[in-house]
Design brief:
The chain is α+β, with helices and mostly antiparallel strands. The chain contains five helices and six strands; from the N terminus they run ααβαββααβββ.
Length: 134
């Protein structure tokens, strides 16, 4: 096995240098999962969704939603929330304010996420005043 194959991590500065021509948009992914079954999750769901919509209105929310089971047939209470924040600590503070986490219904883990590649397409039809995201 070569020395390159043995490498298990690369310094962030190296990744930034290698992707300098790309977007390099720093966001934070909050992975959230139930602590004690679905009952406490359902008890907090309405307040959680209000909180999420508030983050969206403030421009903090990038994306959020439930994560299906691996067979795509059910929801076991897990979710992911991607936020705009100045630091991982700020993202943690945002997650701590979520009623799901503040009540103890869910636990969370925050990971920094650097967006370099991808696309988003928005189609706006003037005549029907409709739009489509792809």
């Amino acid at each position: 096995m070569s020395e390159e194959e043995m490498i298990t991590s690369v310094p962030a500065a190296g990744v930034m240098e290698a992707s300098q021509a790309m977007l390099q948009k720093q966001l934070y992914a909050i992975f959230t999962k139930p602590v004690n079954g679905m009952g406490p999750v359902f008890a907090q769901l309405e307040e959680h969704l209000k909180f999420q919509v508030g983050l969206e209105r403030e421009g903090v929310m990038f994306a959020a939603g439930p994560m299906w089971s691996d067979d795509e047939q059910s929801w076991e209470g897990e979710g992911m929330v991607v936020v705009r924040a100045a630091s991982r600590q700020e993202a943690i503070s945002i997650a701590e304010r979520d009623p799901m986490h503040a009540s103890g219904a869910r636990s969370f883990h925050v990971r920094p996420w650097l967006i370099n590649e991808g696309t988003i397409t928005v189609r706006l039809d003037y005549s029907s005043q409709t739009f489509t995201l792809a």
